[in-house]
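Bug report (template v2)

What were you trying to do?
Predict the complex of my protein with adenosine monophosphate.

What happened?
Run completed; filing so the output is reviewed.

Input:
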Amino acid sequence: MTFRELNLNTPLLNALDDLGYETPTTIQHKIFSVIMSGRDVCGIAQTGTGKTLAYLLPCLRLWKFTKDKNPQILIVVPTRELVKQVTEEINKLTTYMNVVAVGVFGGVNMKPQKMEVEQGCDIVVATPGRLLDLVLDGSLKLKNIKRLVIDEVDELFNLGFRTQINNVLDRLPEKRQNLLFSATITQEVETLMDNYFLQPERVEAAPTGTPLENINQYLYRVPNFYTKVNLLEMLLMENETMTKVLVFAATKQMADDIFVEMEAKFAGQAGVIHSNKAQNHRFNTINCFRDGTYRFIIATDLVSRGIDISEVSHVINFDVPDEPEAYIHRIGRTGRADKNGISITFVTEQEMENLAAIETLMNYTVPQLPLPDTLTISDVLTEDEKPKVRMRETLIVLPKVSESKGAFHEKLAKNVKVNVKVSYKDKMKAKYGKPKTRGAKKKK
Ligand code: AMP
């Protein structure tokens, strides 16, 4: 099967030639005619399956030139990285077409985006918050939208964008085609389709949870965080095939901690990205990773979704994610588009339960590798790993008010001090044996 067998036009085929893409991936092939038919579609696909091109190709094939300034195609995605990536992909595919695509996302000044949108465009790629801001502001008009794509819907919901999505959907023309893509179809995704879609046809890239076949997965059982640090360092030192390594960490703090450890050993070879980092830093880090300046980057789940970094040689899961789907997303960063990839997961005793959930979802047991003999097992524990001393909470029974003696109760007899008034005269008498008065003193 080649792209020539799909009902594409010359400009698109030429662009694909330039990109060097010959064979459509499964989802690209399966979804093409369904989208071309004009039906609503639910694509079940994770990143790495070629899902972006899967919707872009038929959307661009169906696109018709108009003089109207308002966009015809709206693509909603969860992160700014994805906005950038999809916009770039559109630009590459439309080298021989007269299509203007604009990407808008939050976290930056709205003015330049407002101006770009107002100048007129054919396709808008947007994160939901900024999209809604531009619509409410009046700069972006949705009345000509014929095709809506919501990409990585599960992730959009995870990020709490439900209200914004519903709000945007309510403002779209009724007569339109809806396309939705998600790695997992959750109850929330189903509800969205029930409310806004018209009998969507489901097209699956691979059954949900099935790992991509070209990813070799392994795991190490590791006792604690600092032994994981030692293991990561050792793997990077000894393994020359680890040319482009994406290290995943559960939290921003963990990502920063690993970065500090690695930067000490591999100065200048590592980058770190998470949502606390400024947008410019994130783009720069990704670019440095792309062009090979960085040999590895440490990232949290959020920013890794959807970013397009080809030829990731290894994905290393420094932790085991709580949600099994996150693991599928993570390892999907390697082994992309018909290339082999390797994923390595570090698992502590506490994380075995998470691993079990992942293995159940995939219906696959990840092979375990023995720890290298020369690995230094650390006995230093992080604050989180230290056993917690739990104080028993004891209930102190307070006496009832009626039984209580109150704050000013009687002292014990032996402690009672009786104040006896002694006159100055008597005091002097007791001291000097005779009456002594102030006057007497003076007279002397
Ligand atoms: P996606 O799953 O959309 O994030 O795409 C994964 C990567 O595969 C991107 O870098 C695409 O440019 C690339 N790609 C998509 N379709 C093809 C194809 N048919 N042949 C080769 N590479 C592709």
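What did the reviewer find?
The mean pLDDT is 87. The chain has two domains: 3-204, 215-362.
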